[in-house]
From TrEMBL:
Residues 1-27 are annotated as: Disordered. It holds the Pfam family MST. It comes from the Bacteria. Residues 15-27 have a biased composition (Pro residues). This is DinB family protein. It comes from Streptomyces macrosporus. InterPro entries: DinB/YfiT-like (IPR034660), MST-like (IPR007061).
């Protein structure tokens, strides 16, 4: 096997394959991976009981449902409020005054999943309507053109956030019921 197809230690472990049908263009590739990780997060939560979704198994105290709510807010912050400068009510809705993540009182799991899916759908629309070199609009998250990142930068930033949190959910899921991620 060539170094491109083996693990970092040369032990013959195959490297992860890209999501199927990934386009080679500079927006299509990260957008396809972002969709892959959006689905991965939902798969990792699928099968957990309501109690496990709302239970923390980590010293930091966050729960799997809080993480999903956080990712819905990340989508809204970076694509709607950030890139398009859409006015959004409470862009930091996933955090309390102390910066701790939380799901709003009374919000059901179904509603969190629905909001997550809706935010992802809106983000896809935004990405499809712009070029990777387009800069975020001024007036939402960004006050000046100099600080406004490109769409390509935002895509990669959000992608790395998903990849990191998918790994967190791997650990939580294994602790909850022994399921191990792929």
């Amino acid at each position: 096997m060539s170094p491109e197809t083996t693990g970092i230690f040369g032990d013959g472990t195959p490297l992860p394959e890209p999501p199927p049908d990934t386009p080679p263009d500079p927006v299509g590739l990260p957008a396809a991976y972002l969709d892959y990780y959006r689905d991965t997060v939902l798969r990792k939560l699928d099968g957990l009981s309501e109690a496990e979704l709302r239970r923390s198994r980590l010293p930091s105290g966050w729960t799997p449902l809080e993480l999903l709510w956080h990712l819905a807010c990340v989508e809204r912050r970076w694509f709607r409020w950030g890139f398009t400068a859409e006015p959004v009510e409470d862009p930091w809705a996933d955090q309390d005054a102390d910066g701790r993540r939380h799901v709003p009182d009374g919000m059901t799991t179904e509603r969190v999943v629905e909001r997550f899916r809706a935010q992802c759908a809106r983000s896809r629309e935004i990405v499809a309507s712009a070029a990777p070199t387009d800069r975020a609009a001024v007036g939402g998250r960004f006050a000046t053109e100099e600080e406004a990142p490109t769409l390509a930068w935002i895509l990669l930033h959000v992608l790395q956030e998903y990849a990191r949190h998918a790994g967190h959910l791997d650990i939580v899921r294994e602790l909850a019921d022994g399921e191990v991620g792929e």
